[in-house]
Amino acid sequence: MTKTITLDLDNLHKIRDINPFLASYNVEFAEVTGGTFWKAYSDDQISGKEAFYVEPSNDGIEAMYKDLMQEYDPIDLSNEKLRYLTKALGEAWIRVSGTWSTKTYYDFVDETGGKPPQGYLNVLTKEQWIGVLDFVKAVGGHLKISMANCPGLHSAEEPWHPTEAEKIFELSQAYGVPIEAVEFANEPNMLEDTGFPKGYTAAHYRRDQDLFFQWLEEHYPNCLKVGPSSTGGDDITFGNPNNQSGAGGVEQVACETVNCEDLLEGTRVPLDIFSYHYYNGISERLASVMPEGHWSSEDALSEAYLSVASDFCKTYLPLRDRFVPGAEMWVTESGDAGGGGNTWASTYLDVPRTLNEMGTFAKLTDGIIFHNTLASSDYGYLARQVFDPRPNYFAVLLWNRLMGTEVFDSQIPIQEGAHVFVHSRKDQKDGKAILIINNSELEATSLKLESEAHIYRLSGKDGQKRADKITLNGETLSLREDGTLPELVGEVFSGSELIINPTECVFIII
């Protein structure tokens, strides 16, 4: 049965203005330095024809890495195709961080010969960091990082010191691409499992975060202090709540986790921005270790699945209000699944989740979502190494071109078939930009219209929800032969009833 909805566009309540850089993204430190990252899925695994499964090991997850990881060369950030497609997304924050950042040594004088000093796992060269700075400048980005905080820098009982921080901040500032925002550490609530020194506790973290931000205020006062960058904890459950047989958080793969309160209570240096990490669950790569945390692709359009992002946000909102009142919320890592993304992350099936996350987040708070990643693993906007745009890239490109920064209450409750978001128009003309996600796989949704509109109808190629290509108004989106983006043009609609077909995401400009 078709669901019919009506919007009273002239009488919608404005909720807020949002940060124009809402759609930002991550570049993994492991991409910059090269090294191990999540093993690529095969074409048959991506299409759903073949399962991905790695037998769990009694020796823990590290013993499984040989089957979960593979070696990658450093990303070529000078690549013209990469820069062109990134710049097309518009001005944004670029976070260069990730698990590898916590254990990376900054070798800017070629002293190591590429061999990490004791207590570190990776080496960042001056040439590699200059490559990052050139990239950020070329695409008009704003640079955000997190710091090294590992046994190579200090022991748990020794206070943090700025030896490494001085290197990367000084070089960036001198080069003319300053670090504009920083988290002290990536995912600190996992303590030793995130790379911290042996015996490191939440109390050690509070001590060291204060020391770092005191140093930052003295030397780089214009740099935003962001934190705590937690993942899980705080009663966060990964995976379908109906499938939980016990703990469903990161504590299943981490030896010890702490909550946001443990990291921030009693710290002396106030933060400028509150941050956390969101993943809808964990990917097939880790499903054998943490089965409760993995969602089936059959659930990827369900209300339960699509509500996870807003549930994360609602969990952290009171913590933001408590520890950083009045601040923006930054989701400094965001993706469909931790562990490199699900097999369907690079297909159209992840587009409804991505757009729904942006729409619901903008209704709940102001801030930024850093999609993980720009061009690494299966959740990347662009395919690794070749940089071909994936369905999520085109969906976010359209969001950035069409959806303005004023957010309105659609007055239509989120429900199957009708996830409705209303913004101002990006071109600042009178009217509204509407996004409707029909997450039903069976029923169409009807929108009553009283005026002419331009329609941008997104779906999977050939109507397949797991297609690796996305279509706009029936035309497959891909780069032209000369490597340029296709025109993204809406269709004029003059009727009184617009049908949104099952699994479609439709932008409507009025």
Short description:
By secondary structure, the chain is an alpha/beta fold. Helices cover 23% and strands 24% of the residues. The chain folds into 2 domains: 3-15 and 409-509, Immunoglobulin-like (Sandwich), CATH 2.60.40; 16-42 and 54-408, TIM Barrel (Alpha-Beta Barrel), CATH 3.20.20.
Can you say what the CATH homologous superfamily of the largest domain is?
Glycosidases
Number of helical elements:
12
Helical content (DSSP H or I, runs of 4+): 10-25%
Mean pLDDT: 95
Low-confidence stretches: 246-252
In the CATH hierarchy, what is the architecture of the largest domain at level 2?
Alpha-Beta Barrel
Q: Give me the count of strands.
A: 24
Q: How does this structure look, described?
A:
23% of the residues lie in helices and 24% in strands. The chain is of the alpha/beta class and 510 residues long. The chain folds into 2 domains: 3-15 and 409-509, Immunoglobulin-like; 16-42 and 54-408, Glycosidases (TIM Barrel), CATH 3.20.20. Strands 2, 15, 16, 17, 19, 20, 21, 22 and 24 form a 9-stranded antiparallel beta sheet that branches. The protein has an 8-stranded parallel barrel with strand order 3-6-9-10-11-12-13-14, surrounded by 4 helices. Strand 16 and strand 17 (433-437) form a beta hairpin. Helix 10 (308-323) packs parallel to helix 11 (351-364). This is Beta-glucuronidase. InterPro entries: GH.
